[in-house]
Amino acid sequence: MKSVLPILMRKEITQFRRNKVLPRLAMMIPIMLVLIMPLVTQMDIKNISVVVLDEDRSLLSSRIENHLANSDYFRMQESAYDYSQAVELMDQGRVDLIVSIPAHFERDMLGGYGRPISLTANAVNATKGGQGIQYASQTIISAVTEIAAETGLEAANFQSSDIRIQNRYNPTGNYRHFMLPALMIMVVLLVCTFLPLLNIMTEKEHGTIEQINVTPVSRWEFILAKLIPYWILALVMIGLAMLLAWAVYGLVPAGNPLNIFLGAFLFSLCMSGFSVIIANISNTMQQAIFVLFFFVIQFMLLSGLFTPISSMPAWAQWLTYAFPPRYVINIFRSVYLKGTLFTELWFDYTMLFVLAAAFYTLATFTYKKQK
Amino acid sequence: MSTFASFVRKEFIHILRDVRTMMIVLVMPVLLMLLFGFAISTEINDIPIAVVVDEYTPEVRRDLTALESNPYITLTGIVEEGQVDEVLRSGKVSAVVMMRDGKRNVVLDAANSSLSVSAGSYITSILRSGTTMPLSITTYMRHNPQLKSAYNFVPGVMGLIFILICAMMTCVSVVREKEMGTMEVLLVSPIKPIYIVIAKMVPYFILSLINLATILLLSHFVLDMPVSGNLPTLLTLCVLYIILSLMLGLFVSTLAQSQVVALLICAMVMMIPIIMLSGMMFPVENLPPVLKQISYIVPARWFIEAVRKVMVEGLPMAGILKETVILCGMTIALFVGSIKKFNDRLE
């Protein structure tokens, strides 16, 4: 007997293509994520508004001020008479960082007993505050080193050139190149979960699933016919996203592209299997979407996409071992930027495979042909 | 008015009957809030590093001890020079410190450029700590002395969860009636469409208020978020945002042709701009001009900014006037839009 699988698949593809919204949405998502969103991912904070309160008025303090003014990170538009006025400006959101240089700073400094420069940052956003302080400290140190070198004083103590830093894999320090591969994964994460889930739930709500259930079509044929088109769609979208990344951002994988496609394929397998489980246990479309949303938002925010997994507390790090995106994001970033080899990523591939197997086993157990 | 009351009752019965969905709606935000509140963090610790050493001079020993004892860095071991590329590429370490011929080089895995900048500056400051420098800098972190990421993320997660969950609740309301064919029955009933729409909102509004209460209690008592400003201001702001979010769902519902499309828009399509353009993950002031313009229409952007101001900075109502007015305007626009779209269906 001829398998019904190709016939069922043709039905799914026709249904998808006939839909007015879905194909457009499916095209819009990679464009939005790969073309536009990388522009947003800029961790480097520029235009930090800084105020310098200079009570020293010396060569050194004006040099510090110059260095700050010439830096890309800072802009000096506001000014203040004293600390309390500067703080007021900070609370109004007009100033992000206050640098106050105490009186006799230069004299004391050259005398060898420094009174501290104080930096005050608005740290409501901890990252931004911390970065501002970090940049300002570096700028001040380089200004002081420069003066010390010019005056020949205690030059031995200012060994700033003794440590050389070499950036490997992303020498320009482009954060977008770090985010792009991960944003590609978001495309698969969204398309391979929401679309199959809604597809199955539509059949459930319209009652057409019962008609399928009374036919000799096995549950696997029914499910596979639904999922295979999405696996193909996921691979096509990854291909498209890679082309966009190359054409627009000049990013090409340093490693073997096949490793990327293999990761994407295993991941689409995982995620679509996951959505079948949710479809099996939900009664209504809305309920199913709530449950899926609950997981997808965790996958997005806790898989190392935006914030590093190593920053999370230990229990949360353990939790992420059950999150498929964690592995595929690592695969994509490593292969894309570092050219990591397949054998070095065996753990990630194995885990994706194990999770896929687990999801499909669960999906089989939760699928019931009869009510 | 009694017709209106019976409409509200009808909607309530719909929701109460579906216990499972209701439980999901009430429990999910709590779990997400706790999970994200504790887990999301940008604090950098435990950077794994390796060291290449050619000779154990006293300086090298001093540096090794300094690296070993630093809490931000985990020294995983000493590697051969030939292994440097391999350990970095496979992701075993994020940086390698090469100590040869009395020179110190730091090789960073700069794939994650943001992390590598911090790693580089930690390592250099550790290595420099041996040398004396008569310059000292004291730092003050205003509003957030411990540099807690939660101060940034809790308002962000609140903005994200409220808008998406509220919109997902109401986005099926109208379109489901359309799909089931019960819309016609509603339209011939002796009540104005505007009341039908409002009646649909009421039960969801009450559910959302319960969510608001649990989320605010959690963020203050469990996640240690301060409420520096006054509580009524915060509550007004949140209730306004909830109404806005419910209206957003309603608006989508009047536009969409099917439940599938409505849910896709509210859960999938809106999630991306809300995460990316609201200032929750990436600072809004960094955005390129065009995207900055787009971010102005993301309600979460204004809400998150206002919540930070009230909760962390302790500004009064006057300090968040701009955000409040914008959110109000958006709510009204969405309400008018929904009613207009809803009336169109009559023809």
Structure, briefly:
The complex is a heterodimer of chains A (371) and B (347). Chain A is α/β, with parallel strands linked by helices and 371 residues long.
Description:
With 371 residues, chain A is of the alpha/beta class. Chain A contains 14 helices and five strands. In chain A, helix 2 packs antiparallel against helix 7 (175-206). Chain A is elongated, with a radius of gyration of 28 Å. Chain B has 347 residues and is an alpha/beta fold. Chain B folds into two domains: 2-40 and 147-344, no CATH class; 47-128, D-Maltodextrin-Binding Protein, domain 2 (3-Layer(aba) Sandwich). Helices cover 65% and strands 9% of the residues of chain B. Chain B has helices spanning 2-17, 19-39, 58-69, 84-89, 113-128, 150-170, 173-180, 183-187, 193-222, 231-255, 259-269, 271-277, 289-295, 299-313, 321-344; strands at residues 47-53, 73-78, 95-100, 103-109, 137-142. In chain B, strands 2-1-3-4 form a four-stranded mixed β-sheet. In chain B, helix 2 (19-39) runs antiparallel to helix 6, helix 6 (150-170) packs antiparallel against helix 11 (259-269) and helix 10 crosses helix 11. The longest helix of chain B is centred in the middle third of the chain and has 30 residues, at 193-222. Chain B is elongated and about 90 Å long. The relative contact order of chain B is 0.12. The mean pLDDT of chain B is 85. Classes of the chains: A alpha/beta (371), B alpha/beta (347). Chains A and B meet through helix 2, helix 4, strand 4, helix 6 and strand 5 of A and helix 2, helix 4, strand 4, helix 5 and strand 5 of B. Strand 5 of chain A pairs parallel with strand 4 of chain B.
